[in-house]
Design goal:
single chain, 435 residues, alpha/beta, UDP-N-acetylmuramoyl-L-alanine:D-glutamate ligase, Protein-Tyrosine Phosphatase, Chain A, 8-stranded mixed sheet, 6-stranded mixed sheet, 15 helices
Length: 435
């Protein structure tokens, strides 16, 4: 680790110790810190604000790629990161440098002066400081958790809000009632400003409608105002109101990515209609979002599979994401898969494992490293066994891959899944870091 990376890690470590809780939803501390820093949240480019349970990152990736293909500058804020914190803050599409990140974090520390504040709150203001100092045409802003009380929601006005599919997740913070969860996510909508919604369950739509009605929000809904699907020629059909467009297929793999691409296209249509051109739409085929049904065709871990067996990686971590993952895996290989699985205790592992059971020939379970909330490999193997899934604990990903390659059908592909934190661990071990 070089000196700048070491200094950055030290600053991040200090910020984790300023609040006894990792997550403490609310806006007061974030607003106060921003004011002390000169209110960078009031000095940002037009904002597309994205909330939802699954797909936020993919929508952000498609949007960024569309704007970049149009020749425009797009800042991007997402979370969590896979391997390096810098991934959360992209200045005009490029990871923020260690030097600039250390600089804004140092400013945060100085003005905060040790006051209680969560890691996400302080680093969100650090991101706003960085964004405010670089001109851009758009800021693509992803919520961390929820919406109404998420630190990103201190921005008083946005150009547009996007709500991706809503499902149960983080119940210990958001509750288990889908309508209530949707009401929390709806908190990013702004008075008399448009909001684009993915197709939602009846309960989720009810929660969104209540808030939208109060605010006078213009609603643009998937399946009503727009629709995206595969076309017969291997491209994508995007229908926007009375317009029909045949566009490049999304670069990200999976049927659900057509929905995410459609949300991004609809957002660009609303915010930057004159930038919606054939050149811009080529950005669909250039989008990158590591750790989401990603094929690892090389690297120190992938190269263990010398037989030519295919290795895939995905960060889906809840039941809704697992269902999308399984649908995609079945389209990639009509048969059983070898599974390497790791998970945190923030959601029931059995919910994910029950979804993956139909395609799993065998599961090698891992303990995710450097994560206090990680479920142990043996506990995961026991849970899998209770669901009648053949499973065993593995000491490392390397050991699991070596065992798979030695003992099983060489034509059977491998999927590593269960957590974004596991995905990040694998990318780091494989030496294929996101850029």
């Amino acid at each position: 680790m070089d000196s700048s990376s070491s200094e950055l890690q030290a600053a991040l470590d200090r910020l984790t110790k300023l609040h006894p809780k990792l997550i403490d939803l609310g806006l007061e501390r974030t607003i106060e810190l921003s004011k002390k820093c000169g209110s960078p949240h009031l000095q940002l480019p037009p904002v597309i604000h994205i909330a939802g349970t699954n797909g936020k990152g993919s929508v952000s990736a498609f949007l960024a790629s569309l704007y970049q293909a149009a020749g425009l500058r797009a800042h991007i804020y997402t979370s969590p990161h896979l391997c390096r914190f810098n991934e959360r803050i992209r200045i005009a599409g490029k990871l923020i440098s260690d030097a600039e990140l250390v600089s804004v974090l140092s400013e945060i520390e100085a003005v905060n002066n040790g006051a209680p504040i969560t890691f996400f709150e302080s680093t969100t203001i650090a991101a706003f400081l960085a964004f405010s100092r670089h001109p851009a045409d758009i800021l693509i802003l992803e919520t961390g958790l929820g919406g109404k009380y998420d630190s990103t929601n201190i921005i008083p006005d946005t150009a547009l809000s996007v709500i991706t599919p809503i499902a149960r997740d983080h119940e210990h913070f958001l509750g288990a009632d889908i309508t209530g969860i949707a009401t929390q996510k709806a908190g990013i909508m702004r008075k008399n400003k448009p909001a684009i919604w993915a197709r939602q369950s009846r309960q989720a739509r009810q929660g969104l409608i209540e808030t939208a009605t109060e605010l006078g929000t213009e609603i643009i809904e998937e399946g009503v105002d727009f629709h995206a699907s595969p076309s017969e020629n291997g491209q994508m059909e995007f229908i926007w109101r009375q317009e029909k467009h045949i566009l490049p297929a999304p670069a990200l793999i999976g049927r659900h990515q057509y929905q995410n691409a459609g949300l991004a296209l609809a957002a660009m249509k609303m915010v930057s209609p004159f930038s919606f051109t054939p050149a811009a739409c080529k950005g669909l085929a250039a989008a990158k979002w590591p750790g989401r049904i990603q094929k690892l065709s090389g690297g120190s871990l992938a190269d263990i599979l010398l037989s030519g067996r295919v290795l895939w990686l995905d960060g889906a971590h809840n039941a809704h994401g697992a269902a999308a993952l399984i649908h995609t895996l079945q389209s990639l290989h009509n048969g059983k898969w070898m599974v390497i699985f790791g998970a945190l205790n923030t959601r029931p592992a059995e919910d994910f494992l029950a979804q993956i059971k139909p395609i799993a020939a065998h599961i090698h379970c891992l303990t995710i490293t450097d994560q206090p909330a990680a479920i142990t490999a043996q506990t995961l193997a026991n849970i899998a066994a209770s669901l009648d899934i053949p499973a065993k604990a593995a000491s490392t990903a390397r050991a699991a891959l070596t065992d798979i390659d030695a003992r099983t059908d060489k034509a059977m592909p491998v999927i590593i899944c269960g957590s974004l934190y596991l995905a990040g661990q694998i990318l780091a071990e494989n030496k294929t870091l996101p850029d």
